[in-house]
Amino acid sequence: MRCAMQLDLKQVFQQEGFILPIDLSLDLSDEEVYGVKPFADPVRVTGTVENHGSVVMLRYRAEASYTRECDRCLELSSQPMTFKFEHIVSGVE
Question: What's the pLDDT score for residue 1?
Fold first, then answer.
């Protein structure tokens, strides 16, 4: 699976205390996972990129509905999924 998302971080790196909000939807309906396209609905991504005292931190949450046939009964089953991520992007000098 390959998905690209670009954020303009110039202002975040230039201004201590700056917070860039993230709120977007990703269309992954054409992406396959084990031969199935399980993301019929957009994946919602929310979070922030923050400059705090020479450290730029990315915190975000991805929410999706994962839908596929049950291996046992072959009925469609949908499971909500939430993933939280936190990354240090770079130290600012």
Answer: 47
**Contact criterion met (CB below 8 Å) for 65 and 79:** yes
Q: What is the pLDDT of residues 5-59, one digit of tens each?
A: 677 888 888 888 899 999 999 999 999 988 889 999 999 999 999 998 878 999 9
From CA 61, how far away is CA 69, in angstroms rounded?
Answer: 26
Residue 78 CB-half CA count within 13 A: 6
First to last CA, the chain: 35
Cα distances from 19 to residues 50, 54, 60, in angstroms, run 4, 13, 13
The arrangement of strands across the sheet holding 55-69 comes to 19-26, 43-52, 55-69, 76-91
21: β partners:
48
